[in-house]
Design a protein that fits this description.
By secondary structure, this protein is an alpha/beta fold. The chain has eleven helices and twelve strands. The strands form three sheets. A seven-stranded mixed beta sheet has the order 2-8-7-6-5-3-4, with helices on both faces. Strands 9-10-12 form a three-stranded antiparallel beta sheet. The protein binds 4'-deoxy-4'-aminopyridoxal-5'-phosphate (PMP). The site of 4'-deoxy-4'-aminopyridoxal-5'-phosphate has 12 residues, from helix 3.
Length: 352
């Protein structure tokens, strides 16, 4: 550590992303799509290459329009970002500090407490209920700004939008991170017509097969989008590059491919859930592209290591409440059949 580093970063705990080995594993650890990006995305992305000598449109007008048309809002309600992580960062920078915390579920996306610490806000959380669902009453009853993923991160459980509407009735911000909403959950988008204190955060990393493209967006009232742009233009005006913007436009326009991929993931999730339960695993109800599960005879860390030895990479969190579990991203049906076979081998004590 140099003598130049500011005191506030000494001992600071950054976000730790999942492992990204370059090949060699059936990769079920970071909730990516097992399917390649859409052909339409490929064509537009390739065409954009020829103009990479020029700066992109800092407003990303073309993409904002495509998003607005797709989700039935106006382009002024849309802010596009370098991954949805950046949308979340802008939200914390604009609205959180020592006296304005965001309350989050104790088990949720690991970046929320990191952003919170980065802007000097107090870390405030509510525990999940015993069934691993978010405690909606705690969020409805408190007065702070709130943030949660729906479906929730790490668990996959989902909250009906009626409960979100209850939270919005108080004069505070409600941020709903819908990274996983396309895998069978209900979006809070219809609530935007009635509430101007709602921010919806989306990503193209999961259901649109563009994790490496780094594209996310926020949808909110025009005033909120303008405030988030204040942060963006003070930080990184050209935040979403030309190539990523082109790929995003193609991915959103190719609705047929999107439907095909999300349906395949939902089908593979149903198969995996049933097959894992048949092996004696406890599996949490999920509307996301992953399943949180635990084995009655083995700790999550041990199970992850055993799977890894057999070429299957899953995610394990050593945080309280999660250490018994593994989180398994839903891949293709073929990948999930291999995962189930290896799980069976481990449980039955087969040697490799
Ligand atoms: N929100 C949630 C709940 C997530 O799980 C993730 C991905 N790990 C993100 C946001 C960020 O996704 P990205 O930056 O790739 O859009």
């Amino acid at each position: 550590m140099t003598k130049f580093l500011l005191d506030k970063y000494k001992g600071f705990e950054p976000y730790v992303p999942g492992e990204q080995p370059q090949g060699g594993y059936i990769k079920l650890n970071t909730n990516e799509s097992p399917f390649p990006p859409s052909e339409t995305a490929r064509k537009l992305y390739t065409a954009a290459f020829d103009r990479l000598n020029l700066y992109n449109d800092p407003e990303n007008t073309a993409l904002c329009k495509v998003i607005a048309d797709r989700y039935g809002v106006s382009p002024e309600n849309v802010l596009v970002t370098n991954g949805s992580d950046e949308a979340l960062a802008f939200i914390y920078m604009a609205y959180a500090d020592e006296t304005h915390p965001f309350v989050a579920p104790e088990i949720s996306y690991g970046f929320y407490p990191v952003f919170s610490a980065l802007v000097g806000a107090e870390k405030k959380t509510f525990p999940l209920k015993s069934d691993y669902y978010i405690d909606e009453a705690a969020f409805i009853n408190c007065d702070d700004n709130v943030i949660f993923a729906n479906p929730n991160a790490q668990t996959g459980t989902f909250m009906p939008i009626g409960q979100i509407a209850e939270m919005l009735k108080k004069p505070r911000l409600v941020v709903v991170d819908e990274a996983y909403v396309d895998f069978g959950a209900e979006s809070a988008l219809p609530l935007l017509k009635e509430y101007d204190n709602l921010i919806i955060v989306r990503t193209l990393s999961k259901s649109r097969s563009l994790a490496g493209g780094r594209i996310g967006f926020a949808i909110a009232a025009k005033e909120i989008v303008s405030e988030l742009k204040l942060v963006k233009y003070s930080f990184n005006p050209y935040n979403l590059g030309r190539a990523a913007e082109a790929a995003a436009i193609g991915a959103i326009q190719d609705e047929e491919y999107f439907r095909k991929c999300t349906a395949a993931v939902i089908g593979a999730r149903e198969y995996t859930e049933q097959a894992a339960k048949a092996l004696g695993m406890t599996v949490i109800d999920s509307r996301a592209n992953f399943l949180l599960m635990k084995c009655p005879t083995m700790d999550g860390g041990e199970l992850k290591a055993e799977l890894m030895r057999r070429g299957v990479l899953v995610r394990h969190f050593s945080t309280p409440g999660l250490s018994e579990y593994i989180r398994v991203t839903i891949g293709s049906m073929e990948q999930m059949k291999t995962f189930i076979q290896e799980l069976k081998n481990i449980i039955s004590g087969a040697r490799i």
